[in-house]
Structure to design on (192 residues):
C-alpha cells in the first residue's frame, strides 16, 4: 500500500529568501555598473571637450605672428594673445574674440572661478523629466599658457598649454593635462 503525501512540492520560505538575496545582489551589481559607465562617459566628454579647446588655443598661438607673440611676452598681464572661439549661442557670426593671457592661473590651476584664463563651456543640455525644463551641463576650465624661446634658435618658441577642467558643482572628477607645440619662423631663423 502506497502512502500518499499531502505535502505540495514548492519552495520553502528560506529558499525564497535566498533567491531574493541573490537577485538583489545581482541588481545592485548591475546598477553600480550602469552608474560607473555613465561617469566614464561624462569624463570622456569633459576630456574630449577640454582637449579640443586647448588644442584650438595651441594651434591659434602657433599661427600668430612673431610680433604678436613678442608683444604678449613683453606685457603678459596687459597684452593678451588674440585668439578666437566659437559660440553656438552667437547669432549670425559664431566666431567671437576670446583673448588668452600669458599671466593666466598659477600652477595650481583650478580652485578660483575668476582670473584671465578661466572659461565656462556649455557641454550639453538635458531635459528634466519632471518639469520638461532644459538643464545646462557646464564645464569649468582653467588654462595656463607658457611661451619660452627655444635655446640656440632665434625666432622659435616652445608653447605649452596646461589645463584643468571639471563639471560645474562637481567636487571631484577633474581632468588635467598639457599640450606642447613649437612656433618657428623658418624664413628668419638660420640653422646654426
Amino acid at each position: 500500500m502506497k502512502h500518499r503525501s499531502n505535502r505540495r512540492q514548492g519552495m520553502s520560505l528560506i529558499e525564497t529568501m535566498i533567491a531574493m538575496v541573490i537577485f538583489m545582489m545581482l541588481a545592485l551589481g548591475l546598477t553600480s555598473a550602469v552608474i560607473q559607465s555613465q561617469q566614464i562617459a561624462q569624463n570622456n566628454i569633459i576630456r574630449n571637450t577640454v582637449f579640443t579647446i586647448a588644442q584650438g588655443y595651441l594651434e591659434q598661438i602657433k599661427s600668430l605672428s612673431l610680433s604678436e607673440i613678442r608683444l604678449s611676452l613683453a606685457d603678459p598681464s596687459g597684452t593678451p594673445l588674440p585668439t578666437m572661439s566659437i559660440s553656438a549661442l552667437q547669432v549670425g557670426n559664431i566666431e567671437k574674440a576670446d583673448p588668452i593671457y600669458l599671466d593666466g592661473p598659477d600652477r595650481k590651476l583650478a580652485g578660483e572661478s575668476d582670473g584671465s584664463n578661466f572659461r565656462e563651456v556649455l557641454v550639453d543640455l538635458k531635459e528634466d523629466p519632471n518639469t520638461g525644463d532644459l538643464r545646462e551641463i557646464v564645464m569649468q576650465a582653467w588654462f595656463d599658457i607658457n611661451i619660452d624661446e627655444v635655446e640656440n634658435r632665434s625666432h622659435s618658441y616652445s608653447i605649452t598649454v596646461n589645463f584643468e577642467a571639471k563639471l560645474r558643482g562637481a567636487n571631484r572628477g577633474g581632468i588635467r593635462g598639457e599640450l606642447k607645440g613649437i612656433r618657428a619662423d623658418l624664413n628668419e631663423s638660420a640653422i646654426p
Summary: DSSP finds two helices and six strands in the chain.
